[in-house]
């Protein structure tokens, strides 16, 4: 049930343009004895928020009067998804255009004679921008595979130390490897577990890269693993940083597709808002849930657990 008054209603065309004030398509439909198809009615109240309806009406002539058969569908969610899609496309276009413009400018610099030190700085910047683009495209492709059900899932016996060490090697070769330090704290009695090695590696890579992205330069990051204290049959894995932290008001949304922290938008940090959504999907695929604990100005802890073998 939707409670509203006439003052709350705005009638609109399908393209989003408003009809003239005091226009009532339902009354006009009765007067002209014409059908009304896909007319958009927006109910805008202070609380609750905006509701968007699609209205169809068919005038039916009775013996002594005309009655109007009205069908109303709530399409608010459809419009929200469409708005999200448009914002996402705009954001991806911006995030691709930025690195491309930088790469173009840097390659022009390399076309001129520069000193070895300038050449090194330029090639490092080129590498970083290329990596930004690669991360964005990888996340887009991974999310497409997830949504189509085409992502491979090949669980096997794994040990977290093997995956963590591979993650550290890749981190040290990445654009964050020279500005942040990743420490491994793997308890010696941590058991084997059953998982897809490549997916867990992708999960850890995303989490440690995310930690570096939102941490000041030269801040340390920790990748920890041990038996869960409350359930020794499970192993618990944590990625800990001392970065800027996540506001409490945003923590419930960070695993949603395309969600980006307000601070990352304000600071122009690259990304499609897919990394943590992919991490959560990988955890759920293994029967786990990725959780977050964070305090602004103090840092963040991402945590998940897997059942051990034996």
TrEMBL record:
GO biological process, one term: cellular response to phosphate starvation
Pfam families: HATPase_c (PF02518), HisKA (PF00512)
Molecular function via GO: phosphoprotein phosphatase activity; phosphorelay sensor kinase activity
Domain Histidine kinase: 91-310
Entry annotated with the keyword Transferase: yes
GO cellular component terms listed in the entry, alphabetical order: plasma membrane
Primary enzyme class: transferase
Catalysis performed (reactions): ATP + protein L-histidine = ADP + protein N-phospho-L-histidine
Annotated EC: 2.7.13.3
Entries under SMART domains matching the protein: HATPase_c, HisKA
UniProt keyword list: Kinase, Phosphoprotein, Transferase, Two-component regulatory system
InterPro entries listed in its UniProt record: BphY/WalK/GraS-like, HATPase_C_sf, HATPase_dom, His_kinase_dom, HisK_dim/P_dom, HisK_dim/P_sf, Sig_transdc_His_kin-like_C
Name recorded for this polypeptide: histidine kinase
Organism: marine metagenome
């Amino acid at each position: 049930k939707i409670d509203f008054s006439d003052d709350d209603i705005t009638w609109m065309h399908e393209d989003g343009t408003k009809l003239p004030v005091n226009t009532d398509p339902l009354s006009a439909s009765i007067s002209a004895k014409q059908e009304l198809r896909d007319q958009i009615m927006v109910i805008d109240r202070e609380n609750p928020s905006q509701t968007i309806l699609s209205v169809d009406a068919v005038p039916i002539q009775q013996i002594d009067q005309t009655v109007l058969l009205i069908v109303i569908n709530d399409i608010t969610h459809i419009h929200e998804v469409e708005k999200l899609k448009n914002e996402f496309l705009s954001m991806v276009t911006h995030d691709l255009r930025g690195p491309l413009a930088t790469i173009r400018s840097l390659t022009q610099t390399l076309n001129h004679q520069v000193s070895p030190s300038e050449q090194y700085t330029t090639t490092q910047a080129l590498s970083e921008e290329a990596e930004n683009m690669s991360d964005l495209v990888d996340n887009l492709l991974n999310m497409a595979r997830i949504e189509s059900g085409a992502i491979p899932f090949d669980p096997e016996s794994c040990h977290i130390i093997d995956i963590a060490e591979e993650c550290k090697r890749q981190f040290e070769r990445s654009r964050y490897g020279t500005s942040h330090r990743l420490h491994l704290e793997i308890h010696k009695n941590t058991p084997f577990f059953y998982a897809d090695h490549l997916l867990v590696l992708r999960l850890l890579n995303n989490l440690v890269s995310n930690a570096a992205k939102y941490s000041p330069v030269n801040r340390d990051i920790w990748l920890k693993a041990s038996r869960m204290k409350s359930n020794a049959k499970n192993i618990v894995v944590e990625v800990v940083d001392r970065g800027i932290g996540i506001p409490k008001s945003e923590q419930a949304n960070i695993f949603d597709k395309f969600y980006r922290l307000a601070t990352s938008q304000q600071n122009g940090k690259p990304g499609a808002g897919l990394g943590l959504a992919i991490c959560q999907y990988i955890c759920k695929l293994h029967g786990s849930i990725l959780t977050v604990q964070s305090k602004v100005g103090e840092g963040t802890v991402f945590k998940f657990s897997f059942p051990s073998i034996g």
